Amino acid sequence: MGAFTLQKREDGIAILTMDVPGDSMNTLKADFGDEVTAILDEIENDDAIRGVVVASGKKDSFVAGADVTMLAACNDADEAEELSTSGQRLFDRMQDMKKTFVAAIHGPALGGGLELALACHYRVCSDSPKTQLGLPEVQLGLLPGSGGTQRLPALIGIQQAMKMMLTGAPVRAKQAKKYGIVDDMVPQSILLDVAIEMANKKISKRVLKKDMMAKALENTSFGRNILFKKAREQTLSKTLGNYPAPMYIIDCIEAGTNDSRKGYATEARLFGQLVMTPESKQLREIFFATTDMKKESGVDGVAAVKVKKIGVLGGGLMGGGIAFVTATKAKVPARIKDINPNGIAGAIRYSYDILNKKVKKRFMLKTEMQKQLSLLSGCLDYSGYQNNDMVIEAVFEDVKLKQKMVADIEEHCNEHTVFASNTSSIPIAEIAAEAKRPENVVGLHYFSPVDKMPLAEVIPHAKTSDQTISTTVEFAKRQGKTPIVVKDGAGFYVNRILAPYVSEAGFMAIEGQPLDSIDKALMKFGFPVGPFKLLDEVGIDVGTKIIPILKGQFGERFNAPEAFDKLLENDRKGKKNKSGFYDYDAKNAGKHIDDSVYRLLGITPEKKFSADTVVERCVLMMLNEAALCLQEEVIRNPRDGDIGAIFGIGFPPFLGGPFRYMDTLGIEHVVSRLEHYAETYSEKYQPAEILLTMCKEGKSFY
Ligand SMILES: C[C@H](O)CC(=O)SCCNC(=O)CCNC(=O)[C@H](O)C(C)(C)COP(=O)(O)OP(=O)(O)OC[C@H]1O[C@@H](n2cnc3c(N)ncnc32)[C@H](O)[C@@H]1OP(=O)(O)O
């Protein structure tokens, strides 16, 4: 059975439906070429057909792009280039035909899916929240290879198109209409009828409406030169040369501005090259890993209880963030309890501020904002708590206080209510120590800022029930998170691998290495911020609080520089009190190191180590700790360890995570460098047993 059917109607309009058999979502595969060519021949040769509506036979999706698994089968760049060229040819043929093609889009139209729609003469989409249009190829280390780099700028202007392609972020129906990607947006119930009506129209030449500023920049070669130069500068300052795809996207757009044939040829050639890069291969692996994780329940075969209502204890930054993702992503009511009315107001304000920005940008209707905000409420006692299916606590990091919260929830809620603690440092078994129903207690560790960071750690203690685990995993997914289940213990997984890396940066600073040179080296390596900037952002007090807990459980390996105590004695908490490693008073707040920190720590800064040594010392500490976590079954497998590090810390995605990175380096190399540092510098570099065994047996993690 084929993936395409053509239904010819009496009125001269044919409906071309794509429905890939056996797949839950349509993707474009190389072996569709002959089938599509035959259908296009049929359309072209049938004089009765005047117009064609391209639609999807899947319930809630249009086309999710080229089949990413197909790319792995390419042997070289030429083969991948040919994939792109043949896709371009088919889409060109549609566009050049003298019959009107209309795409009727409901659900995701991404990558090659949007490129298919762009090759149509008109596009109409449903106003459903499920509808999203975008060219996310950059997130896979690729570029749109079926004409997207040429057609989208021609349709909506270079600047907006470039922004979409460089970020890869999709737009919703309302934005798509606003930017001119679609010609109309209608309720799903009349989508097909409107598309048929459009297919009855003659093909008209589109006139792009641009404001004065856009015209000045895009309509002259002088203006475009400035635009591309600036785009390259900004891109390079973000990627630091680690990702080739964004620069190639700019090259393609530029190549096509004067000569579209050159643009398409450049697109195919660079697409072919990108498919073969190690960066794209690693980013594609992340896609496969996260897709697999969406299907996992936390405990095989154990169904989750559907959470319909939750309580949030504590209206601080974390509580506010948790309430936000609950109301806006999971669409579940959240009742925030705080001891202070200002805490509740602050938490609700957190959501209001984010949503109001969307309304102001006209990405969201005010009524939708009101609907989401109405899911949030607050209380100073436990009123309205009795029917909560889950309560997530985000109160102060104090074990006694958290135990009291467990007791309160056992008193005021149901027998089945899950108590999830957002602690970042206290073992869950301690929080559950006095619980009457310890099987309901679990850790659910979010990362700050909750609305942006995609990871959640789900931490069962020894007595947590399987149902509590799967209910928590399921709910975290509904909140838009990618959860990993990790073993209880100091630091869980993410903070445990982060701490020795940050401490090592601290030791290098004490040895005299300038702080900004350490931050810069690790950013060039691919981390989003350096360790000192990170401490300033999360709060030096918060970031260092976990050290004694980790040291208590794992010993000297978790030593941090003693001089750091002086920072806290000096009330340096970081950005929040404008006093940390960086200078927050100066004009460029947070851009430069506050030199007084060197005096405080008794350091004379001088460059002692190369950037490579800085990176190697810090990153090896993280890699070795990740290996220890696998050895001790803190994480279930290398995949969870990679996703946890990338989504929780920002470990460079193009390296695939700590385990894939160790595979790339070679386990033997990792062991030999760890041993080198263990001999010349410190015992703490002693390689994990698992690495030594793997080295002997010539194994890799994947
Ligand atoms: C030449 C071109 O320019 C190159 C390209 O098009 S590259 C591809 C660009 N497209 C993308 O990056 C989109 C990737 N897909 C997604 O982001 C998400 O799947 C989505 C937002 C479309 C849907 O998310 P969600 O509803 O959570 O469904 P999700 O579980 O991810 O996917 C459903 C199924 O479709 C598959 N799928 C989705 N997009 C796919 C793709 N591009 N390739 C292969 N499989 C894909 C998933 O693997 C999953 O398969 P399964 O049912 O066998 O597990």
TrEMBL record:
Keyword terms: Cytoplasm, Fatty acid metabolism, Isomerase, Lipid degradation, Lipid metabolism, Lyase, Multifunctional enzyme, NAD, Oxidoreductase
Domain 3-hydroxyacyl-CoA dehydrogenase C-terminal: 491-584, 614-699
Enzyme class, UniProt record, top EC level: lyase
Entry EC no(s): 4.2.1.17
Species of origin: Glaciecola nitratireducens (strain JCM 12485 / KCTC 12276 / FR1064)
Family statement drawn from the similarity comment of this UniProt entry: In the N-terminal section; belongs to the enoyl-CoA hydratase/isomerase family. In the central section; belongs to the 3-hydroxyacyl-CoA dehydrogenase family.
Pathway: Lipid metabolism; fatty acid beta-oxidation
Domain annotation 3-hydroxyacyl-CoA dehydrogenase NAD binding: ranges: 309-488
Designated name of the protein: enoyl-CoA hydratase
